[in-house]
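pasting for ref
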Amino acid sequence: MATEKQRQKIISAFMAELATNRWQAIGLDRIADAAGLSLAQLRGAYADKAAIIADFAARIDQAVLDGHDPNMAGEPVKDRLFDVLMRRFDALAPHKVAIKGLVASVRRDPALALMLNRVAVGSQRWMLAAAGLDHSGLEGRIRAQALALAFAHVLETWIDDDAEGWPKTLAELDRVLARLDRLARVAEQLRGFLAPLKARVDDACARRRADAAPPPPADAPPPETTAASIH
């Protein structure tokens, strides 16, 4: 069983490799060598590179959650999300060069993009939770996917934003979240408009299922008579 120290070495080594090499060119043996571990020790810690990056993302999640500000609870949704996602950029900052290399690798590898999207959606569920937003069920999944795409878009600005305070990143994140906020309001209005129609459709489907149900057998015993039924 791998130790926490070994896992940290592996993640650090992998991120250092990503800073100078494409994802596709980084072999497991190379990561093990860079971490000063054997392949067996690497395998004891992670199944593959995807598992390493998933653990890295989980640690970033944890850093964001550890910095949770309870005073933001009463702020508007957009402001809460802005605070959470900027804390995510703060947590990613020490690994900015590696993230830039990873983004370059994603542009050439659709399969890698799909894998990272799964990781990102999982992380953004936690970011929704940190912002006090619903993240459960199908709607939560849709929100997390939308937020993952929005964050990935702003990430493209952030990786090249070297000015103090990341002014371009701040502006782009504000613009993207404002757009998501408008879309959410439209979706809520549409949901309210369609609710009566959905209720009628559900009722019609229920009646159709009842009509299609097979009749009880002819020799079925009559239902048991009870005092309640007599009254």
